[in-house]
Batch of 3 targets.
Target 1
Amino acid sequence: MIKKIIKSYDYSLIAVYVFLCLFGLVMIYSGSMVMAVERFGYESDHFYKKQLVNIIIGFGAFTFAAWFPYKAFQVGKILKTLMVTIVGLLLAVHVIGVEINNAKSWINIGVMQVQPSEFAKLAIIIYLGAVYAKKQSYIDSFNKGVIPPLAFLGFICFLVFLEPDFGTAAIIFTIGFLVIFCSGISFKTFSKLAGLGIAFLVVCSPFIYLARDYIFTKERMSRIEAYLSPFKYAQGEGYQLVNSYLAIGSGGVQGLGLGQSVQKLGYLPEPHTDFIMSVIAEELGVFGVTFVIVGLSYIVLRGIYIGVKCKDPFGTMLAIGISSMIGLQAFINLGGVSGLIPITGVPLPFISYGGSSLLVLSLSMGLLVNVSMFVKYEKKYKIKKENSQSSSNNINNNKIYNF
């Protein structure tokens, strides 16, 4: 039984996950070694060592999620415990949270700082997948099937919004909406849901106007201005984007060589987190960028394929939800670095420095590999079982015929 399960794992998916994490570790060392010494007074390998610990913890979380049956998360007690924990952490942020970059999104637990909103992304995928899998028989009923889970999604987004972290709240809501879209809900019901959302925004528009100074702060509006005209604000909010352009342009096709980035020497403020792709482009050129994009694309597309092949509704929503989360975060980060969209501070999956982000991504990959294993196991060994039963029936029929 165990041998059959081990043979059923998707080792290509595991390999890509491991390679991206290790590649990110190398680039974090390259991008942060100067900054660690000059800005913080640390040793040059400070962030490298911390990320190495994060990767080891992440690999442990990945292994657990890959072995622990994903269907167990549908059990009422486990699901309720998970959601109560997430809500408790999101509420605790507002009481004992640590403020970083004008947002109280972190909780200091001594050994490390935890960002509950990162865990909320995966939790909402598990919650919506489990709930809608149970509601398949009446999934198009607004009162029973649609509104209750959507209300909880809105509540989670509201708690993150208050931190304030509008970007993460928008990501969680988008991920939730994508899970609902692939839950089996009819297009007619989904259209009504979209219309209800638009109506809700219209009703809330007066409150948004009254809270405009809180929502559309000078800092946020300056980011939009810098996005539209980065060189005009090159010494202000456009500073990061301009230097990101210089890093990407300097790298060219082959790059300047590993460790040879110029922009990481104090020009790029976050060379090991949000703008690590700029350092990759400058040092490794098109080849380094292509390696990362191909790896991330493989995970996303493979995840969607697994979701489509999975016959279990919960497994389908898990796979597509996780793939959407990784793809969405990658698009937002790469879009910000290249100037395609405004900068939001979203890390690049598996590559950027960060414990909470990597831990959530590792758990997510473990669940995705878990779903993939069940799909492959059921397909492979169910077919063998059916073939053996068919052969047995043919032998019995031949015996009867010969008799």
Target 2
Amino acid sequence: MPRARPELPTLKKVAAAAGVSASTVSRVYSHPQLLRPETVTRVRAVADELGYVPHHPARALKTGRIGAIAVVVPDIANPFFPPVIRAAEDRAHDRDIYTLLADTDEMTEKEVTLLVQLQRRTDGVVLVSSRLSTEAIRNRSTLHPLVLVNRDVEGVSRVLVDTAAGMREAVDHLADLAHRHVVYLAGPSSSWSDGQRRAAVLDRAQRRGVRVTVLGPHRPEHDEGMRAAAAVLETGATAVIAFDDVLAQGVLAGCAAAGVRIPQEMSLIGCDDILAVRTAPPLTTVRGPSRQAGALAVDFLLRLIDGVREETVERLPAPLVVRETTGPAPA
């Protein structure tokens, strides 16, 4: 005879074991912020011990919510995005909300398709470094709760990492080291962050009397940076500011292959501080608080899902961190 399936613990059994009402158990998994932290901790511990799993479809029928959000990124292989994703998942998990992950592979058509699909499967979306047009983003935000990370669209709640300020610091740092010709190694042409970083470099360089050669666009990949190293060396510049650490790491490898010493013959600066301490020598870079951005974005999104429709904007500082890939301009 087939073995009978074990009876799954119910919400009422958890309530009885924890000594609370069934409605309290329900709130632990739907609105824990309404309860005392010690109550939430005790009920979750009892539920975990019993093997209780909240029934999301039942909750959706009762509340009209699915109990899921999505995080959409342009390239999961880029080291900047995993900390954002992890922080978003952790914050959502605290509210007993599960997280779906989607990768657009830098393709706007795929991004649109995913957002349409996720509208039916989630309560809202955290959209990171979107490559869509401003009009497309505004349109999607009217159809489904949406929060942006690193995309500045008026009328849509967003978390912005202010790497432009760090890029201005980077130019000042190089100018103070007597560099007079700098390469800006650009990222994707559809990247809002690249536009902000490039504009900051060009503006501050003009003020400091530094010549800038812009090379790109480039997909933020190690091999792209490595291939770009030859073009960088041909410019005669004495320093490079890369769109991100991944491109900078590629340039570092390309310069090493060409026998160019960093920082003695070429100074190098990255952005995001995602690989900097792992390079040899350690990379000077602009530090972006990616985990904080992911957590805040989920906070903003959950407020939208709860019916708070006001626009929320947070700008996070991203300072320059000087390490060992920058030095005085060669004579």
Target 3
Amino acid sequence: MCTSFVYQTKGENLFLSRTMDFGFTLDAKPVALPRGYTFESDVDGERYSGKYALIGAGRNLGKYILADGVNEHGLACASLYLPSEAVYSKNTEAGKTNLAPHEFLLWALSFCKDVSELREVLQTIHLVDQKVDLLGITTPLHWIFYDKSGNVAVIEPTDPSFKLTLKENPVGVMTNTPSLEWHFKNLTNYIDITPEQKTSAKFGKFEAHPFSQGGGTLGLPGGYTPPERFVRAAYLKEHIQEANNEQEGVTNVWYVLKSVTIPKGAVIKSDGTPDLTQYTSSMCVSSLTYYFTPYGNQRITGCKLDDDFINHSQTPYEWDVLQTEDILYKER
């Protein structure tokens, strides 16, 4: 599952945001990784020492596995599922950087400043079919990238030759299977959806009037399938009133995220377990602030990748986030 989208305020604050929809409990929390953070690939044991500090949501499983993040240069990335379409090599390739799919995001944010630099090095990357020990499966992922220049790109590993390419994403939304191009074509079915109210219409001598406001949104899909979430996010990010600054931008982003957030019990997988939004997050690539909300607490927590951490820290830092509802009670 999962939904991701980019958003820009009037004040040039750029955000990459996402829902993390998953059935298995991930226990992810905001974490900052310093320059020089070293990790060992599960594929071939090769060790990599990152050039750039970064912040995102992840979990320490001997090394940090991140689902999203932004680095010190403002390159942000979110990884989402692409089941039935993602393909990976069964073997390593000499002369290439061999990575498991779940390692690619960490590598990209550790070594690339922007989308242009990622494009230059992408052909040196070889993704190998390697399981995540915690899940017992190889994660079928695709990735959306966003940088300070406003460049949006998607990587979908669907080529049988295992060649990776960057796709342009003019819509700025990504969900799950089918492929990105299919979702673009599907938007054609919804070009009549509008924020404006519908007028009356005559049927013979009878004139029908709208029941109330919102008539222009009749037909906007409301389910949780990837196509429905894609259309809903694309419509809302396009029409939500423009924000003036970062704080207003966070508010707007969270209203869009709420529209695709899955409450526990609304979607049940074939094994009988619920698929739910375990957290929502947004990365401001302009201020290097990571915003995070867990399932059990609707408060937005902001964590900043500040200059002191970037220039001086040598160890990872994790933020504790309250997991139960934080309600402000008022006395009369």
